[in-house]
Amino acid sequence: MRIVANLIAFQLGWFACVLGGAHGLPWLGVAFAAVIVGSHLWLAARPLVEAQLLFAVAGIGSLWDGLLVGMGLLEYPSGMLVAWLPPVWMMALWLLFATTLNVALRWLRGRWSLAAMLGAVGGPLAFYTGAQLGGVTFADPPLALAVIGLGWLLLTPLFVWIAMRLDGQTVAERAPVTAARSAGARHHV
């Protein structure tokens, strides 16, 4: 049930961000994403660890998208705060995507080729759909989508790897107490 809820929340957030950005209401999607991200962290077994994952992915993803904007491959209609970063609603989308890594996309762990293929197809597909909704325009659509695909081919396995190390959805395993440590503890009591 948590996986289905995670996927639905991500999709609703995606539409809120893209449609808000497309219609000059970039903060609408950001507010919607904040509720979803806040709920995700509230439900996390280790919220601080999960927050590290979300912000690491959002930071890397935002720098990547900023590079695409800087190269002139992408142009966004609203929400740009600085020229070298994507709009605020796109940064919120990166946070939303990161919420799926330890829940709905957990099955990609150790499946690096599959993660790369999913990224190479899913990334450009999401951008193409976003363009159809008015959230982004491409200077040269085939080139932009190819570069986006290459980036997602590399980024998706990286994000899955980071998620394995920053898994705030799983309770941390405690180190086993050795017999010597436990015996020493009894002598000090």
CA-based gyration radius: 19 Å
Q: Please tally the β strands and state the result.
A: 2
Write down the overall mean pLDDT.
Answer: 91
Can you count the helices? 7
Number of domains: 1
Q: Strand portion, in percent?
A: under 5%
Relative helix content:
over 70%
**SS content category:** mainly alpha
- Helix and strand sequence: HHHEHHEHH
Give the CA-CA distance, first to last residue: 46 Å
Placed side by side, the strands forming the largest sheet appear as: 1-2
Q: Summarize the biggest pleated sheet.
A: 2 strands, antiparallel
Q: Which parts are unreliable, with pLDDT below 50 for 5 consecutive residues or more?
A: 175-189
Topology:
Blueprint: H1 2-22, H2 26-43, H3 47-70, E1 74-75, H4 88-101, H5 112-132, E2 137-138, H6 141-165, H7 179-188
Antiparallel strand pairs: 1-2
Task: Explain the overall architecture.
It is a single chain. This protein is mainly alpha-helical and 189 residues long. It has one domain (2-171). The chain is built from seven helices and two strands. The chain has helices spanning 2-22, 26-43, 47-70, 88-101, 112-132, 141-165, 179-188; strands at 74-75, 137-138. Strands 1-2 form a two-stranded antiparallel ribbon. The longest helix has 25 residues, at 141-165. The radius of gyration is 19 Å and the shape is globular. The protein starts with a helix and ends with a helix. Mean pLDDT is 91; it is low at 175-189.
